[in-house]
């Protein structure tokens, strides 16, 4: 009897420790994910008829854009069109041609202006990454008060479209909806509970042996 109680108490202690660890990991994931929100944009292929120079040779190319903002939760809901560049902690733009501009590119800058709906989804935008005195640009805009066309994605490596550039007009891509932080917490919590369950079965087998 004494031996059984010792095993049972050890099993409860180990299960409790595992539950505490799972909860701690879940809380840590939620806190980390709540500190920032990352949006991803995937554009449509550049139209060869609107490309300049030899830019679209070897394509098709299309614009991808990622940015991370310190705004989270309800702070991203129902935004009127506004500049949130001051909240950006990281960004990256690329188009598959080898052209990439991010926060580590020398002389790089970004402009992030968006409007959102009640769910934090981006509905209008003017988003760009620039380098080389803005001669290198990767930009997308849609339903914004700015931009040389009502909606366009483009990349260029020369000033004012004087040489090589790729562009798609009037055919916007899509921004992904930011994932709720609770998803990360739930996934890690479920993983922790699954681990606890497996350990419980292991200890139960050892106790009956």
Describe what you observe in this structure.
The chain is of the alpha+beta class and 209 residues long. The protein has a domain at 38-179. The chain has helices at 2-34, 181-208, and strands spanning 37-45, 62-69, 82-83, 88-94, 100-102, 109-116, 122-131, 136-142, 151-156, 165-169, 174-175. It has a 6-stranded antiparallel beta sheet, with no helix packed on it. Strand 4 (88-94) and strand 5 form a beta hairpin. Helix 1 (2-34) packs antiparallel against helix 2. The longest helix has 33 residues, at 2-34. It starts with a helix and ends with a helix. Mean pLDDT is 78; it is low at 1-9, 18-22 and 24-33.
Which bin fits the share of residues in helices?
25-40%
Order of helices and strands: HEEEEEEEEEEEH
Number of helices: 2
Calculate Rg over CA atoms. Answer: 25 Å
The coarse overall form would be globular
Low-confidence stretches: 1-9, 18-22, 24-33
SS content category: alpha+beta
Q: How many runs of DSSP E, i.e. beta strands?
A: 11
Note the main sheet: 6 strands, antiparallel
Order of strands across the main sheet: 3-6-7-8-9-10
The average pLDDT value, as a whole number, equals 78
Strand content: 25-35%
Taking the alpha carbons of the first and last residues, their distance comes to 15 Å
Q: What's the arrangement of secondary structure elements?
A:
Elements: H1 2-34, E1 37-45, E2 62-69, E3 82-83, E4 88-94, E5 100-102, E6 109-116, E7 122-131, E8 136-142, E9 151-156, E10 165-169, E11 174-175, H2 181-208
Antiparallel strand pairs: 1-2, 1-11, 2-4, 3-6, 4-5, 6-7, 7-8, 8-9, 9-10
């Amino acid at each position: 009897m004494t031996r059984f109680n010792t095993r049972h108490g050890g099993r409860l202690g180990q299960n409790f420790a595992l539950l505490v660890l799972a909860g701690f990991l879940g809380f840590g994931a939620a806190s980390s994910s709540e500190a920032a929100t990352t949006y991803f944009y995937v554009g449509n292929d550049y139209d060869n008829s609107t490309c300049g120079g030899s830019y679209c040779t070897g394509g098709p190319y299309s614009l991808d854009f990622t940015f991370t903002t310190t705004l989270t939760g309800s702070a991203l809901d129902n935004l009127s069109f506004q500049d949130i560049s001051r909240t950006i902690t990281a960004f990256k733009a690329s188009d598959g041609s080898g052209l990439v501009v991010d926060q580590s590119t020398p002389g790089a800058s970004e402009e992030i202006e968006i409007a959102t709906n009640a769910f934090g989804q981006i509905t209008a935008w003017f988003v760009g990454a620039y380098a080389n005195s803005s001669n290198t640009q990767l930009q997308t805009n849609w339903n914004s008060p700015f931009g040389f066309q009502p909606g366009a994605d483009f990349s260029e490596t020369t000033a004012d479209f004087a040489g090589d550039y790729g562009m798609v007009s009037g055919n916007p891509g899509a921004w992904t909806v930011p994932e709720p932080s609770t998803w990360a917490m739930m996934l890690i919590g479920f993983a922790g509970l699954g681990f606890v369950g497996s350990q419980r079965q292991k200890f139960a087998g050892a106790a009956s042996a």
